[in-house]
Amino acid sequence: MTKRSARRMTWVGAGVLAAGAFAGAVLSMGATRAHERVPVREPERVRGVEVARLTAAPAVPAPITRDYATKVVVNLEVVEKEMELAPGVRYNFWTFGGTVPGSFIRVRQGDQVEIHLTNDMHDQMPHNIDIHAVSGPGGGAKVSMTMPGQTSAFTWSAEHPGLYVYHCATAPVGVHMANGMYGLLLVEPKEGLPAVDHEFYVMQGEFYTKGKNGEPGLQAFDYQKALDERPEYVVFNGAVGSLTGEKALQSKVGESVRIFMGNGGPNLVSSFHVIGTVLDNVYPEGGSVEEHDVQTTLIPAGGAAIVEFRPQVPGDYVLVDHSIFRAFSKGALGMLHVTGTDNPLVYHGGATPAAGK
Amino acid sequence: MTRPGRVRRFGTAALLGVVAAMALGRDSEAQEALGALAARIAARKAMVRIPAGSYLPLYTAGGRTDLRVGVGAFALDARPVTRGEYAAFEALHPEWRRSRLAGSRAGAGYLAGWRGDLDFGGAADAARPVTEVPLAAAQAYCSAEGKRLPTTDEWEYVAAASPERRDASGDAAFKQRLLELYTRPRPAQPAPVGSIFRNAFGVWDLHGLVWEWTVQAAQNDHAARHAKAHGAGATKHDMGCAGSAAGASDTRSYAAFLRYAFREGLTPGSTTSSLGFRCAR
Predict the structure, then answer these.
(1) Which of A102, A291, A335, B167 is 20 to 30 A distant from B139 in Cα terms?
(2) Cβ–Cβ < 8 Å for B137, B98
(3) Does residue B220 contact residue B241 with C-beta atoms inside 8 Å?
(4) Residue B163 to residues B73, B153, B177, B271: CA-CA distances in angstroms?
(5) What sign results for the dihedral spanned by CA atoms B159, B133, A80, A260?
(6) Residue A144: its chain B contacts at CB < 8 A?
(7) Does the distance separating the beta carbons of A227 and B265 come in below 8 Å?
(8) Is A144 in contact with B273 (Cβ distance < 8 A)?
(9) Is B18 helix (H, G, I), strand (E, B) or coil?
(10) Is a pLDDT exceeding 90 seen at residue A10?
(11) Closest to A305 measured CA to CA, from A236, A352, A243, A258
(12) Could you tell me the sign of the dihedral formed by the alpha carbons of B94, B99, B105, B108, in that order?
């Protein structure tokens, strides 16, 4: 695999050089610019092997401290599993790792990633995985179709840093995704991400149940509602209330918070907003560009963003999809509970105290 | 096809299972008697005469909806093969007992949920569909009854029927029902045969009980059709991408996509615990 892609890269490289020589004769510097716009990425030499530690949302695996590329083995198990979608409402979820969203996978740029996808023997459907960070047909889907009770494996090079969605792509892909088959994979840049006090994993997704929002009992998937893009539920981390009450995210005043925010869709685009703060840093769409002082960031279906902020005063900060009826009445609502001392200079109730007092 | 008749037949199958368990390891006379009983039951197993007709496959050239596939008249088991029936077959054909295949490639996962040869569990399990059976075993079973496995086209043709209509492929409510049957949580054990629904042909349980083995008729090979629709690069894993919508005659037939994807993933040795079969003639 590595050898083959290295060879392919060599050919691509030769092609670029040839094109460069030709273009150079016609227009000086043109070839160099073309080369830079779409870089030729050479897979890095890896040493050693390690097994990725996966986490269930809202937890995130610890930052990678390695300063070299290695082979990372990812053992991911697909499980079809009945769980709670909302209080009293059950749903037969299809999951990566037994949770919605699926297990968080963290690797380093340059790593050679070996995905082992197991499909639980009690499952009824074949499943596979399309990882948006993968360069190759189907993003791995073509080589990871796995029947119940079987395991498949494929290897890819994590060339592009960023935050990526992965999802099941088995036909009919929409049904697999609507049942919860998505998660996030972070390719840390070689230099790592700046240290923060807290990292959280949140992913939005919508559910198309036959029963109306709140109708109790086991709910079936309603294909007409999915076609019409009229979900009964729009939720964070797979269930109404997964990030509220005792399950709220926790931090202290003055601590920095980073959220790896994904959107599994399958249909809706999220207008992600944290009520009560301005996002200091946003990597829109999970890429390398950094934006600052953002109020609401758009997260495409099948996309992600990294957002960072530092709550200045204690209280509850509310995570929402600012398509606000989704937050208010369909479940797209989470809490960050911040403890610590007030800072009236930043925020306080009442009029400003008179100067000099 | 009255209900009492069905119950009586299940009773016989259950009895057979118990007798099979008792006969195991006993004298050959008992086994012979069992074999005779099994043969009688197999001969009486209800089949439904299916008239010639046509159906619209999930994949047609270019996704055209006017390319129906013709299917000749044949007969199809009214219900999937049960564990009791399969135990009777094993009694008669010891070469298909689990212990005989143990250690061989064909034996991997074969009847893995059974307690032992001919021993599929309690009497109540006799009427549940047999699963964990590879293609060769299913073919051997049908052949022993003077039958064969249905082709995928035959199976799909009959499976297009709802309880009310022989061709319910355009019926949105039926599509929704199939999807619900396919995606509901899987019970610890499949229900007894004859418990899901009887379609307009008079055939039970084609959806929502277990997946079923079929064989490809060479001229109607789905993979070949799909390859044609996708160009030369198509592979066995076509059901593994959103591109699988290309060339589909009905991109909203989600249950069909789930079914075709499962079928596509099968290899002859598959002994999946949700995969059973029925026979045709």
Answers:
(1) B167
(2) no
(3) no
(4) 20, 20, 11, 30
(5) negative
(6) 240
(7) no
(8) no
(9) helix
(10) no
(11) A258
(12) positive
Tell me if A210 and B180 make a contact (CB, 8 A cut-off): yes
pLDDT score, position B66:
86
DSSP letter at A122 equals T
**Do residues A130 and A168 lie in contact, with contact meaning Cβ atoms separated by under 8 Å?**
yes
Q: What is the pLDDT at residue B81? A: 97
Its ipTM equals: 0.83
- Whether the CB of B266 is below 8 Å from some CB of chain A: the reply is yes
Give the single-character DSSP code of B204: B
Whose CA is closest to A209, among A179, A238, A167, A182? A179
Q: How far apart are CA A59 and CA A162, in angstroms?
A: 18
Q: CA B30 to CA A231: how far, in whole Å?
A: 61
Is the bond leading into A101 cis (omega within 30 degrees of zero)? Answer: yes
Task: For chain A, count helices (H), then strands (E).
Answer: 5, 21
Mutate to test the interface with A, among B174, B254, B264, B266 (most CBs of A within 10 A): B254
Residues 197-256 of B with CB under 8 A from A: 211, 235, 237, 239-242, 244-245, 252, 254
Tokens representing A237 are 């981390």
> Chain A partners of B175 at a C-beta cutoff of 8 Å?
223
CA distance A108 to chain B (A): 27
Residues whose CB falls within 8 Å of the CB of residue A228, separated by 6 or more in sequence, listed in order: none
The tens digit of pLDDT for each residue in A91-122 reads 999 999 999 999 999 999 999 999 999 999 99
Our CA-based measurement puts residue B256 at a distance from the nearest CA of chain A, in whole angstroms, of: 9
Q: Quote the Cα angle for B138-A146-A265, to 5°.
A: 130
Residue B41 predicted with pLDDT over 80: no
Exposure of B206 by Cβ count < 10 A (0-12 exposed, 13-18 middle, 19+ buried)?
buried
**Tokens 């050089």, residue?**
A17
Report the relative pairing of strands B211-212 and B275-276 from DSSP bridges.
parallel
